């Protein structure tokens, strides 16, 4: 009997968050990956891979954030990932929070752009991440996040 590879949901916002997620692709080789992000245009970056999109929202639009949260719940229920990884921002926070409730393993990698302090989403996601990482050694602290190097 052939065992299927574990399912990984890789979720991020657009821009730099998406670029950082793409840089992690080699680490996903043993997984069945579904990429989830905020623009259908990004599907071209992962040809041949499972790709889904959700709406984009920021903390300044609470109604749209609730829509995004609902879309993420739906995706998690449909995909049933074993592992969820995010490079941020709001969509990743929601994904980790809900995935944890569903029993998935969770990983948060805070953006390299957050040099002085963790992102707001990263600070909030830390409590739901089994592996909570920063890309800056001076931001690592007891209880997380941890520093093991940068994506760049």
From TrEMBL:
GO terms for biological process: dolichol-linked oligosaccharide biosynthetic process. Pfam families: Alg14. InterPro entries: Oligosacch_biosynth_Alg14 (IPR013969). It comes from the Bacteria. This is UDP-N-acetylglucosamine--LPS N-acetylglucosamine transferase. It comes from Candidatus Thiomargarita nelsonii.
């Amino acid at each position: 009997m052939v065992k299927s590879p574990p399912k990984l949901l890789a979720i991020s916002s657009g821009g730099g968050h998406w670029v950082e997620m793409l840089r992690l692709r080699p680490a996903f080789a043993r997984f069945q990956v579904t990429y989830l992000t905020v623009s259908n245009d990004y599907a071209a970056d992962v040809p041949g891979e499972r790709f889904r999109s959700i709406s984009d929202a920021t903390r300044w639009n609470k109604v749209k954030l609730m829509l995004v949260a609902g879309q993420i719940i739906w995706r998690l229920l449909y995909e049933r990932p074993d592992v969820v990884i995010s490079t941020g921002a709001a969509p990743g926070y929601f994904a980790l929070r809900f995935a944890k409730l569903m029993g998935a393993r969770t990983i948060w990698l805070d953006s390299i752009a957050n040099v002085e302090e963790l992102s707001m989403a990263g600070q909030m996601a830390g409590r739901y991440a089994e592996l909570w990482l920063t890309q800056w050694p001076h931001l690592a602290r007891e209880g997380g996040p941890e520093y093991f190097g940068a994506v760049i």
